[in-house]
């Protein structure tokens, strides 16, 4: 420092603090901040007057335009915050706003200190101000400033907990962040959401946020939520709590032992979802909906629909208070409506209003209670269930207190209907069980006498309910309040009550937690606080953001082998018995060590020249090295060392293009020549090679090198490593050109060795979201190439991309039509991992989602609901679940779903049957071959729908069958179809449609012999009275004849009755069958004496002669069919004459 600067700084020290901190010379300002930080560190009294003087200075200090000065200003602020107490939080707003505006886009160290300052403001009990500043910060147009803001909210919540940092404001900020164009912001917002789940629970977060998310984000979060577990506990305390803790520690520990022994473990903090949401006004939309006219309508359906609109509006989590008196009076009348559906809907509306308004609905609830209790006499399950739920909701929401409704309960328990008495007491028991001890102590004097009186009721259910209330009271406040009352009971009832109370008490004791000391928890909290300098980012919560070196423990091959043997079990092939896990992360190795170990392979002069600063010498050296490598007989032993050498000298920072090209060629030669190329070598080279791909001068050899890597270690490993490199690289060409190479790699190797989910996610989240048009175009080409191998199913994973991109993708699909097995890979992988090859062989490529968690008991129950609208909504919900899973699902949990859907195939509402058929078809397409095992023979019920007289129903059935045959093949469906063809209930139109459908699909069967069981029911249809059925059956049987041959068909039809056989033979022109029939004719004619032609004419049928019936049948057959009836007529007459019929 010059003499002038020293003099300037010395003079400046005489100035007031505000002038020093705003001095025009940055060195003076810097020095002032250093002095201020030192002075604050020396202050020990948080009430020191100087701290109040310093507070207003930081607003401008942290906004300094000079980065080093700004950093020192933050140091001073941190020292000030540590020295002060909660009184200085008055300065928090202006300082936080200044930090948000100026510090979050600075140097990494500056950002880190800014975040520490925010957390100290939270510690100083200014969390509301902190969150207000964060609301401004997350709206910053620069994404670089948004991520630190999300991270600091994540850290504050993680360290202080949801009691200190209110989740409500954070929940409001998140929806906008989910749609942020920057992927880092989206990743951080997902991490913050997961942290919220740890504090307030998964369900509240889902219900508040999921409806505001895109389907893709929702799916990603669903997957991440599975990893959220454990109870969140704060690791840091606000300043006032720290002071209390110090005071408690200062108190002599005279009674400490007893309290620590009975201390219970920390329970999870309960957050009421009601407090997290904003109230919604429902009165205004209710007025507009025509509610008041609807409830007065004469038609019950109009009244029900009007109340249903109220129920829907009131289902919001929090309702804005208002004048609901008139609404309550109307609902009171509707609860007693003569139509059950209207009464149920009104009851549910009351329950929703109670949940949404809570204490604001207290007065109305008390007016409604007598009517609801009276209505308990209704025996219909739907009404009884609605009443129970509403009454319980009124109590849980705080609308009704038992102390306030004693008279209403007294009247209800004296009702002449026993059901009202018992259900009222059940409700009282529920209310007591869900109340606290203090409340029960106040009300037991009133309710115990009521219950004692009910113990003498003539109805057993009422007596049992009364016992339940007394048990609930005893469970809450003990036996003392019941002692006098028990004396009045006889021995039998006294024993029963004592047993019930005893069992309830045992249950409470058995479910209690073991007392533990709280000292351990406090210690751990202090330890965490001390080590809080290592702060996590919000994105670190995501499973995909875990560092790669987390898998390092797998280096030890011994335990890995033994574990594999244990898990794989006995009957495994040798190839998969004990695969050795390859260590893919390269260890550090110095250049000297590499040179020493390559001493016998590479000349010392060559390595020296590779280090030369003259590019011609380096070029000459790499040429010599290339010759040496090509002449090596045992290249495998030195492959990794040679690659390490080239990565070090000349290295990937080489500027000369010719040298670069030669280096890449040597590495390509090594990768394509050695028997086993280590994955560590690929990891060493990938970053450098991917950068060379971005350069047009080295692009061709670099792409060739990547292809050689794929042949050596498999494209799956290369792709997986490239995703991360390409995402994070600053050069956009690394991404765009790298994706173009991926297009050629997919074309060369196919998709069998790739994790399709990862590549699709990469395309969606990185490629298609890129601001560079070249990258988006490359990604579209890559997806088009995937379509060539995977097929149209890939479209389901990309349904939520922008419309413009969708149209571009459709055009690319047309250029690359699905070829499937007809598109064999051009290149093969020399050495595949056993695990990867196995999984590739057993999987059909695209991932399938487990939907078992979405097939809830409520959904299955609603599929069988008496309300057709609810049934329809449930069927549509099934379709939506499959749609959200991109129409590719696992069979897990679908057995119960198919059972529920089977019931809907017999629904009285035909529209629901058609909707069910559509859903079954969708499920079959989404599940693939596994649908056969999960469906439990539902196909038989589907085929019954073919007999419906409505054409639309039959078309829906055939559409479902189309989906089924695409999923499982026709071979598996034959047993069910054979039964349907022989079922007369199928109707002529149904059988005709089914034969036409079979004719289209039978030629595609993998094993034609599987179609033979369908011949006999088809043969019977050749004699059907409907000419259309006969024609369709004949067409189908001819198709079977083409694929199976005459011999197989004739053999299968030999057991048919002779008349039927004759018609089949004529229609199908079966020569072998003709011969069999002519033989049988000869046998018949020679074995009996036929009358003369004249005698045959003179035979007259008698009144009871069955031959007359045969004659009639023959004449009818002649009218219905002209071909082949000669055989039937011949057999009829011969059999008639012989007396067989």
Automatic annotation (TrEMBL):
Q: Compositional bias (Acidic residues) at which positions? A: 580-590
Q: Where is the composition biased (Polar residues)?
A: 507-522, 1105-1116
Q: Where are the HEAT repeats?
A: 447-485
Give positions of region: Disordered.
236-262, 507-590, 819-848, 1092-1116
Which BP terms in the Gene Ontology apply to this protein? establishment or maintenance of microtubule cytoskeleton polarity; microtubule polymerization; spindle organization
Q: Name one Pfam family in it.
A: XMAP215_CLASP_TOG
**For bias kind Low complexity, which ranges apply?**
549-562, 834-843
- SMART domains xref list: TOG
> Which residues belong to any copy of the VHS domain?
858-964
Keyword tags: Cytoplasm, Cytoskeleton, Repeat
| GO cellular component terms, A-Z | cytoskeleton
Instruction: Identify the Gene3D superfamilies for this entry.
Output: Leucine-rich Repeat Variant (1.25.10.10)
Q: Which family does it belong to?
A: Belongs to the TOG/XMAP215 family.
Name by which UniProt lists this protein: VHS domain-containing protein
Q: Which organism is it from?
A: Aegilops tauschii subsp. strangulata
